[in-house]
């Protein structure tokens, strides 16, 4: 919200994107309220949500343009808050015209990363800014729980329930919460993936999703997915597997974390890791499993680094792996992070890979337990809850 207000009258189109049910529509409503407080006439604040139920008559760029021109005509500069625009074919033509020709301030939300690809980026290259919306951080989760009068707001509750706002504000038992999360996932698959890409073999698609969930936080390739499917008596070509994974990325269900070779100083093209938009999606699809805890903690740390505007990679140093190499300012700021559920009695096992890095950037181990020391040879040992509150 701070970023949206900071960019209010900057002459750029603001693209607000993220997974469904992460709060994008609510942010637009809050922005409309803030505009009114700042003295913007209410009739100059135009909010339109593009779903089949709310605006079934708007099917293409022409009907979208005519509708918005009618609503803005004769009012001068208006603030257009356009929600879920990817539902309108050719929406980018309308947005470009309203921005370029009429000079309106535009905020556009969407649940598909292709908002910033292809024709749209060609139309307004260099004239937009992206604002990423994630499910709630731990601190936001605690604020939502407090405002809803729910006492369970510690890091254990965050691990159990995740960051989708609808869950954080409801006093649900875990079984009900996971049913709701499964419903969120199903709506994403049906609306943003299956219908858009005309998937006919949903069983194979679901098996690829199963593989990703069971290997969250582990490096793998498309070939490994093919071997998994063959082991289940299913055949599929590798191009289709990569299509399925890409469509999950485009819908913000998963994030791809590439490997970075610290010695060769290059991004590697194989053996990536994948993380979920919110760890609770794992529970909605697989149930709560104690064996997943290490991967869940890693997923939480990965998302928090992204929230802090880091570009995040898996580090490779010869035969060693660093869980996360996080960079800002084109590499001028860097942080190395290892993640573990508990620190072993032989703590050197967890920090040996960090010790092998020969530079002076900060290094830390994030863990669930309260380790006896908060520093080992210049490497910080930090509990998960403190890390999540350390901005």
Gist of the model:
With 391 residues, this protein is α/β, with parallel strands linked by helices. The chain is 41% helix and 21% strand. Helix 3 packs parallel to helix 4 (91-100) and helix 9 (174-197) crosses helix 13 (280-286).
Care to describe what's here?
- This protein has 391 residues and is of the alpha/beta class.
- A hairpin with a 2-residue loop joins strand 12 and strand 13 (379-383).
- The strands form two sheets. The protein has an eight-stranded mixed β-sheet with strand order 7-6-8-9-10-11-13-12, sandwiched between helices. A five-stranded parallel β-sheet has the order 2-3-4-1-5, sandwiched between helices.
- Helix 3 (61-72) runs parallel beside helix 4 and helix 9 (174-197) crosses helix 13 (280-286).
- Among the domains are: 2-132, Rossmann fold (3-Layer(aba) Sandwich); 289-391, 3-Layer(aba) Sandwich (Trna Endonuclease, Chain: A, domain 1), CATH 3.40.1350.
- The protein has 16 helices and 13 strands.
- The two termini are 17 Å apart.
- The relative contact order is 0.09.
- The model has no long low-confidence stretch (mean pLDDT 92).
């Amino acid at each position: 919200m701070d970023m949206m207000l900071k960019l209010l009258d900057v002459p750029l189109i603001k693209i607000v994107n993220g997974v469904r049910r992460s709060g994008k529509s609510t942010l637009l409503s809050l922005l409309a309220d803030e505009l009114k407080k700042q003295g913007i006439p209410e009739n100059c604040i135009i909010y339109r949500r593009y779903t089949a139920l709310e605006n079934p008559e708007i099917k293409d760029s022409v009907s979208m343009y005519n509708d918005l021109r009618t609503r803005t005509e004769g009012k001068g500069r208006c603030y257009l808050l356009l929600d879920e625009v990817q539902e309108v074919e050719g929406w980018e033509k309308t947005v470009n015209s309203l921005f370029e020709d009429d000079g309106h301030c535009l905020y556009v939300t969407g649940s598909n990363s292709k908002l910033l690809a292809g024709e749209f980026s060609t139309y307004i290259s260099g004239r937009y800014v992206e604002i990423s919306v994630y499910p709630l951080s731990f601190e936001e989760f605690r604020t939502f729980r407090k405002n809803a009068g729910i006492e369970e707001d510690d890091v254990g509750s965050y691990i159990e329930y995740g960051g989708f706002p609808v869950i954080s504000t409801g006093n649900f038992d875990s079984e009900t919460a996971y049913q709701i999360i499964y419903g969120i996932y199903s709506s994403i698959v049906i609306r943003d993936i299956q219908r858009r890409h005309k998937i006919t073999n949903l069983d194979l698609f679901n098996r690829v999703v199963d593989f990703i969930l069971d290997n969250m936080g582990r490096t793998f390739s498309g070939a490994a997915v093919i071997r998994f499917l063959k082991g289940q008596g299913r055949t599929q070509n590798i191009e289709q597997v990569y299509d399925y994974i890409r469509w999950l990325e485009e819908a913000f269900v998963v994030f791809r974390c590439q490997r970075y070779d610290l010695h060769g100083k290059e991004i590697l093209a194989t053996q990536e890791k994948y993380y979920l938009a919110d760890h609770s999606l794992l529970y909605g699809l697989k149930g709560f499993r104690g064996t997943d805890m290490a991967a869940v903690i890693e997923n939480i740390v990965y998302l928090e680094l992204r929230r802090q505007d880091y570009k995040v990679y898996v580090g490779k140093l010869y035969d060693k792996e660093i869980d996360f190499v996080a960079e800002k300012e084109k590499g001028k700021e860097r942080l190395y992070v290892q993640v573990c559920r508990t620190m072993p009695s032989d703590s050197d096992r967890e920090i040996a890979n960090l010790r092998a890095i020969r530079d002076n950037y900060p290094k830390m181990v994030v863990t669930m337990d309260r380790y006896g020391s908060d520093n080992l040879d210049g490497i910080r040992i930090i509990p998960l809850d403190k890390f999540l509150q350390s901005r």
